[in-house]
Specification:
The protein has 303 residues and is of the alpha/beta class. The protein has helices at 3-15, 17-24, 74-89, 138-142, 162-176, 179-196, 199-214, 222-239, 241-261, 266-274, 278-287, 294-299, and strands at 34-36, 40-41, 46-47, 50-54, 60-67, 93-99, 112-117, 121-127, 129-132. It has 3 domains: 3-134, 3-Layer(aba) Sandwich (Trna Endonuclease, Chain: A, domain 1), CATH 3.40.1350; 136-214, no CATH class; 222-299, no CATH class. It is globular.
């Protein structure tokens, strides 16, 4: 997945991991013992999207992956992650794959992966869960925890019913979330809608409903990411691959920051221009939904 969407889905998961597991229909005896844990498997150059520990007398882990595009070899990748996570944490692992749009689907995603050695029989059998968001009833998502609300507009919405669903999302945010959480979840809603609906339709609905119910306008959307990525790629061709990647990350950071944190002042722009480390810029991108101000975001750049 593109990094901004990847960071958005991770943020939504971290806002309420127990709510996600409840939506999956998994048994959670004590939500207080559900927590996100480190998903980095750096010893083998791999990182899962989200890894959640369900604590208790018999702990286990839920490994979740979000896909917006097709990965034909995903079942093999899933079993690889599953085995690595079990080896690292020494508890059973349950894998859930969330497909965000039909373009991510494929005949290989059956919920079961198996392989065999000719003449010897089966050598692998692995089961995982697949959730196709566009087939999910929006009513179920609208009744779920707040972090799942951004998925409702890209679920199985009836023809002509998108505004009603979006209004219901905004209504719950207004009633149950503070201003910062409202903005975070409304931003995520716009990003996900951009995966499925035309730019003009999303822009009109997001601006109209957001302003009317939440008092929010000018919210981030997925086509902005695409525009910024395109600009970064063009600069990269002129300046060379390595320098272009850093320039691209700076452009993404400034573009998202303007929408989330407001226009950066000269000292902020100077600090960002001075950052030449791509990993540091990517860490700032991962944290941008959490930061209340530019100063708070930049203060965490070395962490």
């Amino acid at each position: 997945m593109p990094k901004p969407l990847d960071a958005t889905m991770r943020k939504l998961y971290e806002l309420g991991p127990a709510a996600w597991l409840e939506y999956f229909g998994l048994p959670i005896p004590d939500p207080a013992q559900v927590r996100v844990i480190d998903s980095n498997l750096s010893t083998v150059t791999a990182e899962a999207d989200q890894v959640v520990l369900v604590g208790g007398a018999d702990p286990w882990i839920v490994h979740t992956e979000f896909l917006s595009g097709r990965e034909a070899n995903y079942p093999q990748q899933a079993i690889w992650y599953n085995i690595l996570l079990q080896h690292r944490h020494q508890v059973p692992i349950w894998t859930v794959l969330i497909l965000l749009r039909p373009q991510a689907d494929g005949p290989e995603l059956t919920g079961v992966y198996e392989s065999e050695v000719p003449g010897c029989g089966k050598n692998h059998w692995f089961r995982y869960e697949v959730i196709r968001v566009w087939l999910e009833p929006p009513e179920r998502l609208l009744r779920s925890g707040l972090p799942l609300l951004p998925l409702a507009p890209v679920s199985n919405v009836a023809a002509g019913g998108l505004r009603e669903v979006l209004t219901a999302v905004a209504g719950r945010l207004r009633a149950e979330a503070g201003p910062e959480l409202q903005r975070t979840l409304w931003t995520a809603t716009a990003i996900l809608m951009g995966l499925r609906y035309p730019r003009e339709q999303v822009e009109q609905l997001i601006e109209g409903v957001g302003k009317m119910i939440l008092g929010i306008r000018g919210i981030e959307d997925s086509w902005v990411y695409q525009d910024i990525f395109a600009k970064g790629r063009a600069e990269g061709e002129a300046k060379g691959r390595a320098e272009g990647q850093v320039d691209e990350a700076r452009a993404i950071l400034l573009g998202l920051g303007r929408k989330k944190l407001g226009e950066p002042q000269e000292p902020v722009r100077s600090q960002i221009a001075a950052i030449r480390d791509l990993d540091q810029l990517n860490r700032l991108l991962d944290r941008i939904l959490d930061a209340p101000t530019w100063d708070d975001l930049l203060a965490a750049r070395d962490q």
